[in-house]
Design brief:
about 200 residues; alpha+beta; globular
Length: about 200
Amino acid sequence: MKFLTYKILLVSLFVFSINYAQKAPVKVGKIDGSVFTAVGKMKDNRIKIWEITKSKAYYLDLSEIEFVHFRYGKRKGDKMYRSVIVEGSDNSIFLEELVKGEISLYKDFTANMVMGATPMGAGGPIIQSYSIVDYYVKRSNESNAIHLASNELFSKNFKKAASEFFSDCPQLVAKLQNKEFKKKDIKEIVTFYNENCD
């Protein structure tokens, strides 16, 4: 019984650490052009803000925000999140910006947990965690980003999808077809396009 209680406590702490990311200094840019600084954190695709001039924390209305720049310090680095409309959706979501340019690259990260059964007498359920990372690309002259890749087991064929998206750059398509660039090189692929393709 103690072992099961211990496992439940570990799961609770894990969920707590996922949902309550570290607070950090933030710079927030609103759609109206105004910018302000405060302390904030991401929580469930929302941004919680603490301002010196306000007595309580509050959540930002994401429809008013263009970007949020988190400063996590030397160990974790800075992270820029932008409000992006993804193809097939009417509402914008916050995605981490990995590359900015003619083609910008964004990342969405989701942490999940699964509880599974164990063999008889093994002492309780097995708890496994896994994360899903989705990558989106957006051309500077287009309003919506499109899904290009994922680390999910049954995601679409990356080489085919990337070759179609970057079809206006034969040099890059050749590198994709020859496997010089693979899905794990997605940042390098987008950077290559921005630096070498018209």
